[in-house]
Each structure stands twice: as structure tokens, then as C-alpha cells.
UniProtKB/TrEMBL annotation:
Protein name per the record: Glycosyltransferase family 92 protein
Keywords in alphabetical order: Glycosyltransferase, Membrane, Transferase, Transmembrane, Transmembrane helix
One Gene Ontology cellular component annotation held by this UniProt entry: cytoplasm
Species name: Gossypium raimondii (Peruvian cotton)
EC identifiers of the protein: 2.4.1.-
Domain of life the protein comes from: Eukaryota
Localisation per UniProt entry: Membrane
Family note: Belongs to the glycosyltransferase 92 family.
Amino acid sequence: MESEQRLKRKRIYRPYSRAQFLSRRSLILCLSFFVFLMFLSSERFPIRTVSFHPVVSVPSLSILSKNSLQDSFHAKLRFPLSVEDRVLFPDHLLLLVSDKIDEAEKLDCVYHKVLNHKDVVRQRVLSVDEFDGFRSVVRCPLPPWNYSAAAGLMWRGHGVDYSLSLRSNRTVHSWDRLVYEAAFDGKTAVVFAKGLNLRPHKESDPNRFMCQFGLKNSDEEDEGFVVMTEAIVAAQEVVRCSLPSSIRNNRDLAQGIRVTVVLASRNDVEHVQMPSAVRFRNSRSYDHRRNRMRQKENIAVPSVAKLYNSKSYQTKRNDGKFELCACTMLWNQAPALREWIMYHTWLGVERWFIYDNNSDDGIQDVIEELDFQDYNVSRHTWPWIKTQEAGFSHCALRARNECKWVGFFDVDEFYYFPRHHRRGLPGQNLLRSLVANYSSSRTIAEIRTACHSFGPSGLSSPPLQGVTVGYTCRLQSPERHKSIVRPDLLNETLLNVVHHFQLKKGFRYLNVPESSIIINHYKYQVWETFRAKFFRRVATYVVDWQENQNQGSKDRAPGLGTEAIEPPNWRKQFCEVWDTGLRDFVLANLADPATGSLPWEKSLL
């Protein structure tokens, strides 16, 4: 009887004991996990794993705050960045990275000593930008003396081994000789190259060149698959080649493919038929051996250029192309953008392409503000110094599918219609109406407008209401001109001299009379603004201000030396004619009747 009761008690209490055991085990596991998290967040025990760097994410409904966990672990558990390419410029080192970079302020450039890779130096990055929709560019300071330019990247305050960013590629390209951009255009690829030594403003013999398409760097021993095609045209820094048939029929095959220019030998061009299909490097065929022989005979220019089949940046009106767009290239001119864009939008410009040449003055914030106000502005990162002509060629390609007309002019240049102003006629959309009159022309593909150069006009500080109101004294005679072009009627070389383009055969330009339309070029502003030009000129074939060459050129300021030293009486120079026409035009049409303020002033409030 007693034994039966003991068995009964065991049957009754056994489930309770197992539940109690499971409860204790769960508690121990939870506490262990909590201790593990505390261990990870401790500064005394940072994780220094090289081969594996997980990212911890916590559901939003967790009892622990998602933000607090990210703050604690985000930095320590971050993947290293992969540097694809490096370009050495005279004043900085450019890294091309295959990742999108957030929190750039926490990123360091890392340099190792030439003869001792364990001796490293870290410096903060200069700037970071998205690039071509698929990559990022990181600008680093020049390496310290006796340190390699094969820099890596490291998140600040972390113990991650930066050598991971060096394992794939340690090449450093010189900017003197480099293929730096490439773009699709119909059945061709347009390739932009530095160091080909082609004649400025002239077409060159395309038989000297071929284009090479391949998955890896042109200077690597094993290049995967490679195919070469003939050049169709060449001029300045642009070479246009036919696309291989395999890519032409399916552009998705070319997504991220690297392209370069090959300097072809005469025998190769005349006697070897270019392949139209991809050749595999691991093939044992005769074609493979012949391809190897051609490669040895020809010289491929180093390349960081890749082709991407992306149209994400394109915007169109619902009823077709924009009538009038504008494109410019600039460096650190964010304060000038509001007035320039707002004024010319009032004149009829519908779409804006801003090619940013390494600005660090908060230009992205200004553009985002303007775009938020429906000014339809996009910024394109263009990190290549002294390549304005190539940048304009690239912009013409980009705008071709969006715009009937594209104006190429600077942010200190403003169109003005003196005849309309004198007659008191409405000024809104005048520029768009002008070009629309020639949109169906069978002969006119470019409209040229002369420029008047304005001086400081007696001012010592930047005018508060903008350049159009503040600067009112200019030189007597006009200097040069600027153009608005039909991008689908440009010569296939895309040859330009900044001020105008070469057109297709059978088309011509139109010079509009100065009495009808003129450009006010606020070229010589107060010294505080003007001296920034001494940093660098953006045009390829224009000498920098610091260089002692072409002192009498119209691209230079008369009487100004090669140093950024304010000349005597600068504020009174370049003043031969007092001209208040555009000032009066702006105040009459755009000033608030109640306050007298202008639209670009309101945006600063």
C-alpha cells in the first residue's frame, strides 16, 4: 500500500519537476545571452575577427531598443570596404569603392609604409560621394612621405584589419594616362580617356584605336573574357567604338563590364578582323592564341571605367521631351546656384544637370532643397579634374533622351533680353520660346549668344540681392559666346570647345543679335569670390591661373599675375560701361511688390 502511494506521488510530481527544470534552463540561457551582449558592447573586449564580420540586427518589437543596439554594435560589426580602383591626382587620392557608404564622417584613409606594411597611418577622408549609381568615390589626402598610395579604408575607432580592402587590387593609377568614363550610345560605346595626346578641338584618326571590353582590370594577368572592337571616331578625350554583338543584343551582359582604349598597331588594324563575340582566356583555341598575340602588340590604357545599363536618372514630361534643359560644371559654387536656377527657370529652363567637380561646400543640400521646390535639378558626381569638355560631351549624351535643347553655360552667366525689357514686354519663358521656334528646323542645331563681362562694379563684398542686381559695370566689347544645342544633332565625336559643339553635317549655328539677347557674364566679381578661381580651372585646354603661360589669353584676367593676391583697386577694374539693364529687368519682373525681395533671397530665410 505504501509503495503504491509512493508511485502515485512520483507520477504526480514528475511533470512539475521537468517544467521547473526547463524554466531554470531558459533563465540561464537568457542570462547567458544577455552577458554575451554585454561582452560585445564592452570597450575592453572589442571584436577583432578578420575573416568574419557579422551585422547584428534586432527586431523592432524586441524588449531591447533597436537604436541602442545599433549604436553599441554597428561600428564594431561592420563589413570592410572593398577598394576597386585608386587614381592619384596632384592634390588628392581618389578611391572607387563598390559599396554605398553611409556615415562617411566615421571613415578613415589608411596608408602603409612602403617597406613595412605593419606601419600604418590613418587620416580622415576628405569627402565621399555616390558615383554612377553603382559605386562610391572616396577622396583621401595624398599619402605621407614614404607611404604607399595603395590606400585602404577603415571605420574610425575600429580594430578591423584594413588589409582586407587591399587584397583584391593594390593598383594606383596615374591621372596622366587613364580611361575614366564610359557610356552607352545606341550601338556604340563612348569612352573617355586621359593621355591619348589627341589634338585639341580637332578630330583624330580613329584607326589608331580600339576598345577592349573585359570583366577585370586591363593590367591584370588573368582578365577573364575580353573582346575588342574598332574605333569609329576619336577627338580630344573621346573615343567611340562599336559594341560587340553579344553586348549589343543584350546589354545586361555588359552590366559593370570594364572598358578601355587600346592603342592599335597599323598592321593589327589592317589585317586582323575584330572579333564580334566574347573570347575566353582559358580557351586553347587558335582564336585565343591570336587574341594573346594582338594583346602583346597593342597597348591598353589603364582603366577605371565601367559600362552600366541604367536609366534611373532620366526624367521626362508626360507629353515627351523637355523643350529646354541646362547643363553646367562647377566647383564650390553652391551659393550661386539658387539665383542662377531660379532666374533661368523663370525664363523657361525645365531640367537641370549639375556636374559637380569635387565640391565640398554643401552643394548637395542646396540641390535637394531646389529639387524639393520642383526645380527638377539633378547632381552628377564628376570627380575628374580639368575635363570640362569631356563632361559636356557626357552631359550631351545623358540629356539626349530627355531634352530637345540643352544650354551649356556657367553659374555666373545670365541670359538677358534687352529689347523686350525696353519695350516693357513680358519676360517669363522668353528663352524657351526662343529655342522652340527652331525645334523643327532642318538647318539650325545651335543658337549662340555673345557675352558681356562684368567687373566688381565698385563693390568690396558679395551683393546681398545676387549678382544680377549687384554688378552693373562691364567691359565695352563682348567676349566669346555660349551656346544652346540640339543634342540629337551633334557630331558623333561630341567635339566641343566648351562654348560650342561641332554639329552633324548639314546643320549650322545661329548667331542671335546682341540687341535681342545677350549673356551677362559676371566674370570678375569681388575679390573674395574671384580668388577661388585660382584653385583650378575646369577646362582641359585652359591654363590654370597659377601657371605662367598664355598671359594674354581671354581666359585670364588682364593684368592679373599667377598668385592669388588682390591687385590694387580691384573693385574699380573692368568697368567701362555702366549697364543696369538686367538689374532693372529682374527687379521689375521678379521682386516682391510688398517687400522688394527676390525669390532666391526667400530661399535663404
